[in-house]
Amino acid sequence: MPYKVTPWYRRKRGTQVKTDYACQHTRSVVKHRTERKSSCKSVSQVQAQATEAMAEPAYTIPEFRQRTTEGTEEYQRVATNVSKGLSVIQEEIHRMRMVTKAQVDSLAIQREVKERMTKRTDWLDEIPKMPDFVLALRPHTVWEKTPIKLFCTVQGNPRPVVKWYKGGVPVDPLSAPGKYKIENKYGVHSLIISRCVVSDTAEYSAVATNPHGTATSMATVTVKRPAGGGELCHLGLVPHLTEIHPSKLEISLLDRFSISFGQEGGAISLMCTMVVVPDLPNVPPIAQWYRDDKLLKPSQLVEMFVGGGVARLTLPHLAKDDEGLYTLRIFTKDGTAEHSAYLFVSDAAPSAPGAPGAPMSVKAYDVNADYVLVAWKPPNTVNEAAITGYFVDRCEAGGDTWVQCNDAPVKVCKYPVHGLSVGHSYHFRVRAVNSAGISRPSRKSDKVTALDAAENERLQVIKIEGKYDIVIKDDDLEGYVTIPGEPTDLHASEVFKSYVVLSWKPPSPRGRAPLWYVIEKCIAGTGAWQRINTAVKLHSPRYPVFDLQDGHKYQFRVYSVNMYGSSEASAPSGPVQKVDEDGAEVPIGVPSAPGQVVATRNTKSSVFVQWEAPKVPKNLIGYYIDGRVVGAKEWFPCNHKPFRHNRFVVHGLTPGESYVFRVQAVNIFGLSDESQESSPIAVEPALGKGVEYATPSAPFGITMLSSDGSSITLAWKSPKHCGGSKVSAYYIDRRDADGLVWKEVNLEAVTERVCTVDNLTEGNFYEFKVQAANMAGVGVPSVPSAPMKCEAWNMEEPGPAYDLSFSEVRSHSLVILWKAPFYTGASAVTGYFVDMAKKGSSEFTTLNEEAVSHRYLQVSGLEEGETYVFRVRAVNTKGVGKASQVSEPVCARALPGTKEIEAGVDEETGDIFLSLEACEICEESKFVWSKNYKPIGDCPRVSVTSKGRTSRLTFTNPDKDDLGKYSVVVTDTDGVSASHTLTEDALNTMLELSHAIRHPVVPLKHGLNYEILEKGHVRFWLQAVKLSPSVSYRFIVNDKEVTSGEGQKISHDVATGVIQMTVDLFTRANEGTYTVQIHDGKAKTQSSLVLVGDVFKAALKEAEFQRKEHIRKQGPHFSEYLYFTIADDCTVMLACKVANVQKDTAFRWYKEEDEIVPETPPNVMSGACALPIPLFSRKDQGVYKAVLSDNRGKDTSTFDISGQAFDDIINAIAQIAGASASELVLQCTPEGIRLQCYMSYYTEEMKTVWKHKESKIASSEKMRIGGTAEMAWMQICDPTDKEKGNYSIEISDGVKTHTRTFDLSGQAYTDAYEEYLRLKAAAFAEKNRGRVVGGLPDVVTIMEEKSLSLTCTVWGEPTPEVTWFKNEQEVASNEHTKVTFDGGKFASLVINKVTPDDSGKYSINVRNKYGGEFVEITVSVYRHGEQIPEPKLGQAKTPTATPAATPAATPVPKSPAPPSKTPTPTPSKSQTPAPSMKSPTPASTPSSTPVPKSPTPSQRSPTPASSRGAKSPTPTRSIKSPTPPRK
Questions:
Q1: Whose CA is closest to 302, among 281, 283, 287, 282?
Q2: Burial class (CB in 10 A: 0-12, 13-18, 19+), 1498
Q3: Engineered SS bond to 529: which of 520, 1098, 1249, 1398, CB 3.0-4.6 Å?
Q4: Are the CB atoms for 265 and 348 separated by under 8 Å?
Q5: Cα-based torsion angle of the residue sequence 971, 974, 980, 981 in order, rounded to the nearest 10 degrees
Q6: pTM for this one?
Q7: How far is the C-alpha of 857 from the C-alpha of 884, rounded, in Å?
Q8: What are φ and ψ of residue 30, in 5° steps?
Q9: Quick one: pLDDT band at residue 274, thresholds 50, 70, 90?
Q10: Per-residue pLDDT for 1433 more than 50?
Q11: CA dihedral 1493, 1498, 1500, 1505 (to 10 degrees)
Q12: At residue 214, does pLDDT exceed 70?
């Protein structure tokens, strides 16, 4: 059956099959700008024709088959039924035919398509076609900081070239490095925009061009920013984006932190930049920082930040604890991205020259209730003296007061601190000590809290039904325990030479009462136990013992103690000795020295050092590595924190320099001996010596300099790494932008970095790549350049400058250099503009307002550590040309060890030179000198010499033509360069110095001068900087040469450069001009001194004085004349010093010509004499004189103490007294309130001012001011409320005012006023109380039958009552004994005809309401004829003043007899004066109070006693009876 298929390339409708010949993937249908014409029919039309041809003709009944009407009806009836069945069958057959036909057509079409597809390439090559977008651009809406990719597929013959535009402006990837990326792979053209910003919102278009036409596809890109920086935006898409987990992000690390160097007390930041896809503001990456594989956490010492494409770790307060290997670990979609680098932290400046560095890693262990063990790591000592010990300080958390814990330095890196307060938190720090001083303190430790570690062990947790926890203390299980058990497991946990730490287990049972411990010690085997913590209440099961003697073994035992008592002693510990039998410390000291040290090359600034571990490690902490430049004496530390492994990379070394290394092992006892030194090694890369060269790295920065339509001129930048040998050649390849095959451009090597590529087709786009070669071979090719169109440049402006480079990069400045454009445009280039931007920014700033004509620019004002990029634009008369390719990023930071050019003059030849010592160099390095940044080359005006790391440019014949800016660049380094501007002033100065060197003079330190010697001799001298042994000279005085002889002596000293002439007798004849002429080899000089007129007269006067002084000093004399000093007790000392004295030399003091004889004779042989003037005051004014004399002569010194001298002494006394002044003290008296200030000495001549409320107080009846030698006082008489307020005393010493204050207000005033009233009342009571004025003897001896009369005078206001007692019983008046009291003044007791029964102890009690007095008399009666008995000593009693009792409170007993053992009655406790009352008789006793029968009075008895209460207003009488004893 015939059918027809239309070829695929002639179809018109959108149902056709479209398969790209290269990609082989299905595309979406796009609208074409040009319609494809076709004359063929569609597939549906073919199918319709085929169906029509297959249809059958209708059936006709023959005539012979025609029937009758009935038959026909019957036939039709039957036929109808049959036809219905046939029609069904017929329809099914037709349907099956149509299905089969469709399948056949489909197979035919597929077969035709396959056949045509195999021939499509040939057809396309044969059919020219304009560009056509098979897959057009589509619009995008994205979030800020996310990347986007625009792509399209275009066809055409020949293959079109695609250019990208943003808003009609061509997209240039070189204008914003890293921003745009254009790709063309297998016919798919794409534009990638990384990290979109809002400004990237625009209409982007792809323009496809070939010789037959141009096609354009456009799409809009919209960049949106989430509202509020992390809040949900109005589109509602951010919640969906935040579902991305940070570990699912794609992250690539870019700029990574390098090996860093810091110093204690400084700050440093480690930073990595990265690209995050997608970069979401509210989903930052997960970044972790590690130090020596230990995870770091944010704190005051560690700050972390991640976001915005940056991960940063900041250490704001560096210490040596921070030294180590830092690792950044970021979790990404594919796992983790990591980077590591070492941070070195050096010691800060020492607190004193030679002092050690600070210790580090201070930590607290074994924390208990009042004890903690502090440990640390020792610092490295390189050139300092050895460490002799450490001081440990503590500070309570939250405070800033540090307290030193140990009185003597501890020698090991551990120290037990005890005496802490339970529940308090502490920080600790450590300081190292050596012979030069004390180090800076270490970083403080983490906070620790003093708690009882055993408390948690006494808790038990019981689970009930697996749900509930019940906490039970051991106290609940022990029952009621009072006395605790004894401690157990007593042993020495720390044994050192300085101390021993005892440890034990707490008792069980313990009890609930607070527990402490008592420790005893004894020398092992003696059993003589002695308590050692007598002043310390110990709460922890730890205790350090410090006072153990060397060579003894000790045993210890412990008691548990609480409020109920003490436990039994614990089992004694084993013998403990802090040193062994040989005297060595236990455990034995530092490790042995490490073994062999081997150093190998690593990089151009580092060396790999490894060593053998010590044979005796002894709890090794780590190692310290030291280095030294070969030939130098000083060592330097390579690490500042002990390193744990036995291999280390030493960084920061000078390239090309040779070093040796040594290693020390470290433990808690200190540093071991140094290992043997390694072999010297030069700092050079490991690869690149001998024949082991590497090929160069890839060149970069390929840029187009010009094009004429058939050729393109290229330039590129040198490889960053030359591979160890000089780059000698470059090879360039090219290809069509839409092709895949690279073609070589040059077969012969290109030695310059500029090349013109010929034989190109105008209008075509080309890509280029470059390879560098050295003696090791050809290196890897560069990244292909951006497509460059070969078209003739006809613009009038100049082309781009190229080969941008940098020199003299410093922290805040640099110099940028470039080469002139290859294409100059319509006129010559007249200048250049330089633009600058920070890395990552597209906003360039023009640095120069006016174009510069030279091809360099000094850029200043940079931020240290910031990275910048630059570009240059050339200018001619037609305008500003195209910008150069953006430079490589450059960081504003100088290389470590960078030095500047030094200008100087050669000391030997006098040549003027410029010199630079490079901080790094390699064998291939060369010094390239330039003047005004133009290479000098071979120039007769200068010569260049290089030796090692130093290069010198010497001027042949310097003059003004040599002025300018000189610079030097060291090749094959990381940018070592420097510059120096030679100015006219500097050149003139160096020319003068050069002339002085070439025409030398003898340089003088001091010109000709004179000095007067002690004997009146005059010395003329000068000093040269340097003299040779062959020096010659002569002295000329008044134009006549003087030689050494009688009267003068001339000499010189080569070592000091001094030439001198001494004149013995200097007289008026010596006036004139003195000159010295010197010749020393080729050098000569002279110096003159004019000694005439007033100058000569002054010299002559001084010479004569010195002669007289010399004569005076031949005998005894004062070496220091009289002066005064003030002793600590404010005694004024007139002192002097004497010399040339003998034993018989006399020394005398005089005041106003009156001799003073001190208590202690002066000792002239001591060389000093002093006259003390105690209690100095105005009376001590006068002229004091000291006279020294013997048979050899006499000398006198005077000192006038008056006027200013007196004031100076008073001020000096006030300075000491004011400093010693106490705070004001309140003292109440019966007259008022007194404020007293105690001081070492006080006199009224001192400038003291009393103030009340800042107002000066003058002495008056109300306010009395006075003082004694020990204090100054101010008394407020009869105080009132007006006298309240703040009082102060000011003591002025002429320089400083010493102030003491007292606030007499509030409760202080109330208490003082009450005390004043009390004392006033007491004084009044004391004044008016009853007392015996006189008349009574102490002892009376009388013969029997005589009459005895005891009479005395009494006084009191009101009139007192008088009561007589015998043997403590009241005496009643009768015929034998008569008691009288006349006129309220005279009291008598008369005994008529005494008998021996009248012997006894009599007493009189005189009392009124204010108090009274009790006087005793002993009466002895002897018989007639008997010897008069001696009075018994001790029986006489002094009168005792007694206070009045309160009658309302104390009934008077009938017999108020005092106790037998205490003859003096006991006073009443009441202070209220008792009213006057009669003699205590039985009638006066209240009926309600029984009278005691005992002769001892009750405690409330009004009878006075010998010991009075503290509050009694009447002071205790301390004198005997006022009646004198009988003679």
A1: 287
A2: middle
A3: 520
A4: yes
A5: 90
A6: 0.41
A7: 15
A8: -120, 160
A9: confident
A10: no
A11: 120
A12: yes
